[in-house]
# Entry
Amino acid sequence: MAIRNIRELGDEVLMKKSKEVKELTPRTKELIADMKETLYEADGVGLAAPQVGVLKRIVVIDVGDGPIVMINPRILDRSGEQTAYEGCLSVPGKHGMVTRPNYVKAVYMNEKMHPQEIEGTELMARAICHELDHLEGRLYVELVEGELQDVVYDEDEE
Ligand code: NI
# Structure
């Protein structure tokens, strides 16, 4: 396993559409293992393969309950609305207000290429939408209401 370099805003690969995964090759398994390691190293909530320069439809999400690997994910249903600050490992030190559905239902293949279904609300719904956008070459910065802002850390907070 290895930590991969996270591509940042301005890198063309982030604007490209990713391709379906047809089979789990050893190379793809290695990519998934590296994506998990890279996500934890960066202390993020989600990471999509194009963020490490690979145009495959794979995302890893961890909202605090352990990693979920989603291969060829697709949103089936969405409802409600939530507006909150959102950030991205490819846009370090920034965040902005984004409105997303408050509920999302998605299907995907797991790491054994078995079909799975997931329902998520709040942060999970947001993370699924954000990561799936990466697979279409879309970044949250296009959706920000108002200005993209610098993340300011509260010095009193320990
Ligand atoms: Ni992102």
